[in-house]
């Protein structure tokens, strides 16, 4: 599937990077090209006409797309991930939503909605932030507390995008092309079959896991989300290292009269960046391989492994951001002009790293506590 995301596609993402930033969402041409690639079909179940690929096949194309545009890679990656997330719902919900192709759904998961009991489902009201890709969305997956007031339970709710209102709030200094506006829903009916319990999603035991009988749908959600979301940071750092190498090879240092490439410190920075990025690939391969081996056997992924995976993703982002900063600070003042891709990569990864799943302190605390056999909060994001 990696060949579907061609070098030419990535080049066009780069060419549209500034326009996408100005638009504050993916350009229509990018969405049209994405649809033509079939990439969003990668994790769609075979019974609905998709490829039902192994989950790890999603990661590398998203990393490569970030060589063109961090924001575009993030939005496209999440469009594809949310097709996988839909496959975790029950059969009837999948039949309804997969009838729309491509299935393009933002999925703000924080439970900031309330689903009150109604005959055959819930009446949903709420407002959600971080609805990546909502401008082109045709469905919506949101987090909500459902059930009676004395016994609510966290759930994901699936509903048509036409039942939501977009609130234009995405005025940011990075990741602008993701179009991650707020969405609001008022008293929308969501039938019971379009709800799935968060506890089942977290544990890899959601209805779709049994429906499709494929390891792809037994991946637990937090590791899946975190590792996918880390790919644009890693790909961006790789591209920044390439751009830095090109730049130092051509740059004459003012007041020194020598090429920057001839300075040992410039050489050392590049070498350090390259080895740190290679180390991240090793961590990524080990983390993904461990989970894939477990889900292939049919076993549930232990909480310790899930905590380690969240920390691995957070570390990939933490290191990628640090590598970008190290190279950026040695690239001169002209990289701050808006026509320099270096400044956009830096701004985008700075903003990306603020995602809650990449909180480096919390990720380390959770992984350490689990390694020590300690109790962590039931609501902890692992």
Order of helices and strands, N to C? Answer: HHHHHHEEEEEEEHHHEEHHHH
> Any idea what the CATH architecture of the largest domain is?
Up-down Bundle
Radius of gyration: 21 Å
Low-pLDDT stretches are: none
Q: CATH homologous superfamily of the largest domain - what is it?
A: Butyryl-CoA Dehydrogenase, subunit A, domain 3
CATH top level class name of the largest domain = Mainly Alpha
* Span between termini: 29 Å
Work out the number of β strands: 9
Form type: globular
CATH topology of the largest domain: Butyryl-CoA Dehydrogenase, subunit A, domain 3
Biggest β-sheet: strands ordered side by side in the sheet = 5-6-2-1-3-4-7
Mean pLDDT: 96
Total of domains = 3
Q: Main beta sheet: strand number and arrangement? A: 7 strands, mixed
Strand content: 5-15%
Class computed from helices, strands and strand pairing: alpha+beta
What is the share of helical residues? Answer: 40-55%
Characterization of this structure:
Belongs to the HpaH/HsaA monooxygenase family. This is Acyl-CoA dehydrogenase. Keywords: FAD, Flavoprotein, Oxidoreductase. One of its GO terms (molecular function) is oxidoreductase activity, acting on paired donors, with incorporation or reduction of molecular oxygen, reduced flavin or flavoprotein as one donor, and incorporation of one atom of oxygen. The chain has helices at residues 7-15, 17-23, 28-37, 59-65, 70-86, 91-97, 198-203, 207-212, 221-250, 264-297, 303-328, 341-352, 360-371, and strands at 113-118, 121-131, 139-146, 153-160, 165-167, 181-191, 195-197, 252-253, 258-259. With 382 residues, it is α+β, with helices and mostly antiparallel strands. The strands form two sheets. The protein has a seven-stranded mixed sheet with strand order 5-6-2-1-3-4-7. It has a two-stranded antiparallel ribbon with strand order 8-9. β8 (252-253) and β9 (258-259) form a beta hairpin. The chain starts with 6 loop residues before the first helix and ends in an 11-residue tail after the last helix.
């Amino acid at each position: 599937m990696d060949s579907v995301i061609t070098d030419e596609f990535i080049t066009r993402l780069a060419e549209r990077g500034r326009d996408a930033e100005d638009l504050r969402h993916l350009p229509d041409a990018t969405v049209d090209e994405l649809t033509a690639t079939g990439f969003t079909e990668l994790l769609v179940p075979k019974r609905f006409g998709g490829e039902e690929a192994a989950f790890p096949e999603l990661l590398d194309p998203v990393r490569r797309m970030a060589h063109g545009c961090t924001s575009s890679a993030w939005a496209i990656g999440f469009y594809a991930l949310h097709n996988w997330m839909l496959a975790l719902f029950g059969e009837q919900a999948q039949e309804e939503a997969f009838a729309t192709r491509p299935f393009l759904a933002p999925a703000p998961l924080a439970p900031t909605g309330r689903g009150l009991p109604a005959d055959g489902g819930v009446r949903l009201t709420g407002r959600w932030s971080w609805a990546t890709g909502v401008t082109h969305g045709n469905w919506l997956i949101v987090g909500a507390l459902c059930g009676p007031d004395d016994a609510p339970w966290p759930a994901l709710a699936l509903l048509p995008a036409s039942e939501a209102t977009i609130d234009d709030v995405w005025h940011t200094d990075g990741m602008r092309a993701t179009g991650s506006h707020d969405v609001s829903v008022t008293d929308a009916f969501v039938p019971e079959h379009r709800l799935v319990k968060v506890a089942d999603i977290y544990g890899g035991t959601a209805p779709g896991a049994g429906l499709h009988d494929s390891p792809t749908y037994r991946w637990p959600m937090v590791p899946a989300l975190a590792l996918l979301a880390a790919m644009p940071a890693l790909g961006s750092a790789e591209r920044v290292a390439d751009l830095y190498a090109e730049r130092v090879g051509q740059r004459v240092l003012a007041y020194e009269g020598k090429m920057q490439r001839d300075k040992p410190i410039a050489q050392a920075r590049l070498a350090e960046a390259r080895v740190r990025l290679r180390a991240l690939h090793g961590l990524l391969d080990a983390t993904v391989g461990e989970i894939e081996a477990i889900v292939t056997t049919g076993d549930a992924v232990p909480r310790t492994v899930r905590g380690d995976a969240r920390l691995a993703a957070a570390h990939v982002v933490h290191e990628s951001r640090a590598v970008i900063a190290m190279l950026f600070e040695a690239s001169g003042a002209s990289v701050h002009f808006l026509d320099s891709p270096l400044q956009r990569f830096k701004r985008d990864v700075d903003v990306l790293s603020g995602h809650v799943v990449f909180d480096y302190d919390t990720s380390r605390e959770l992984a350490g506590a689990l390694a020590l056999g300690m109790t962590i909060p039931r609501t902890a994001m692992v």
